[in-house]
Amino acid sequence: MKIKTIWFLTFLVFMSFWKIALLSDAEISCNFKQSCILPCSFQSYGEPILHWTQLESSELRVHSYYDNQDQLGPQNENFRGRTSLFQDQISRGNASLLLREVQLQDQGRYSCYISTIKGHEESIIRLSVDAPVSDIRIHQDGNRITCSSEGIYPQPELTWSTEPPSNTTLQNRTTVHQTEEKLYDISSSLTGPDGSDRIYSCTIRTRRNQRRAILRQKSVIVSSRQTSLSCSASNGSASKLLWRFNHSQVIVSRSSQSRATVTEEWKLHVKSVSESGGLSLQDLSPQQGGIYICELSNEEETLVTSTFLKVEDRGGTKRHPGVSMVVVAAAAVILCVVLIRRSRNQKGLQLYEEATR
Ligand SMILES: *[C@@H]1O[C@H](CO)[C@@H](O)[C@H](O)[C@H]1NC(C)=O
Ligand SMILES: *[C@@H]1O[C@H](CO)[C@@H](O)[C@H](O)[C@H]1NC(C)=O
Ligand SMILES: *[C@@H]1O[C@H](CO)[C@@H](O)[C@H](O)[C@H]1NC(C)=O
Ligand SMILES: *[C@@H]1O[C@H](CO)[C@@H](O)[C@H](O)[C@H]1NC(C)=O
Ligand SMILES: *[C@@H]1O[C@H](CO)[C@@H](O)[C@H](O)[C@H]1NC(C)=O
């Protein structure tokens, strides 16, 4: 009994090792459209024969090398012009493959087969391809807030949250669309309650990374000629800053290292841009009233602050008291004229009434 048990346990342990050995293909992940190295090394001995193949339903020739040169005659057309070996490294036992412009159909298992006069060896590599979430946009239109991003793989997930938290589930609608290149575009919109000063945040997540977009809305009313608008303060160092007016016009842009550039139309009104992204405006008139949008982004987040600015018309009364005097005088004159004409009319009516009697 006991011996049998020991044998059985030994068998189990052996099986599990074997299984691990079977499953332990090297895993590598590459980014869509970028270059990628599929690693492979061998015991160098003399002139090797080398075959890289993709193990799909059928084996596809990826890259071959023998007689000291590349042999690309039987190469599958999916890989044409995208593969190379590190030729100077082959004699040192490095048979790694450089794959350029990685496509989604490159995903799968690859075999690196090497034969020398000492024998042959094969290793298996599993390649997965990711298109991480890059740009994420959030914007508001009326009381509808939309968050979107394009060109993601594998299929992303999108979640909304608010600050302070909402005690009702938010009415949201998410649509996912797969492009011809098999990448995913995602968009979600949510109807926020009117006039709330909630902060909305949207997170788009995929296997490789996630990005968050945060929208906060503010309203500023000024009656002076200058004001400062702040951008969301974030802890992390922001790499990109962009201020826009009424969604379309760019006011200021700044990338990680460079200085802020103010567009020609706004040179007159922009006094300065602070380190944290705040915008100091000058020479304001009601024409500069509208929506000021600040976008601060870094690796993980895009913070959008939307400020509705209303510049009140001061009617010039404070700066030119003379004007108001003229207005008052004019009003007095008009009043007098009206009164005189009315009393004349009344007189006329009296005369008429007397005459007809
Ligand atoms: C093979 O050479 C390439 C290019 O120099 C290098 O990046 C890679 O790490 C090497 N691989 C191995 C297994 O030595
Ligand atoms: C949500 O909370 C607010 C304030 O706490 C309350 O007035 C409102 O009735 C709540 N709504 C629901 C659906 O519970
Ligand atoms: C979005 O809507 C779904 C149902 O349509 C709901 O389950 C989910 O909780 C909503 N998300 C938020 C953040 O309210
Ligand atoms: C700022 O940092 C604190 C802790 O250091 C963290 O809890 C908070 O989430 C951060 N906020 C942002 C916007 O990154
Ligand atoms: C900007 O938008 C506001 C509000 O939507 C509008 O009243 C204003 O006319 C716009 N200004 C310009 C210059 O387009």
TrEMBL record:
InterPro entries: BTN3A2-like_Ig-C (IPR053896), Ig-like_dom (IPR007110), Ig-like_dom_sf (IPR036179), Ig-like_fold (IPR013783), Ig_sub (IPR003599), Ig_sub2 (IPR003598), Ig_V-set (IPR013106), T-cell_Activation_Regulation (IPR051713). It is found in: Cell membrane. One of its GO terms (biological process) is cell surface receptor signaling pathway. Keywords: Cell membrane, Disulfide bond, Glycoprotein, Immunoglobulin domain, Membrane, Receptor, Signal, Transmembrane, Transmembrane helix. Residues 38-128, 193-305 form the Ig-like domain. The chain crosses the membrane at residues 322-340. Its main location: membrane. Residues 1-23 form the signal peptide. It is a single-pass type I membrane protein. It holds the Pfam family V-set. SMART domains: IG, IGc2, IGv. This is Ig-like domain-containing protein. One of its GO terms (cellular component) is external side of plasma membrane.
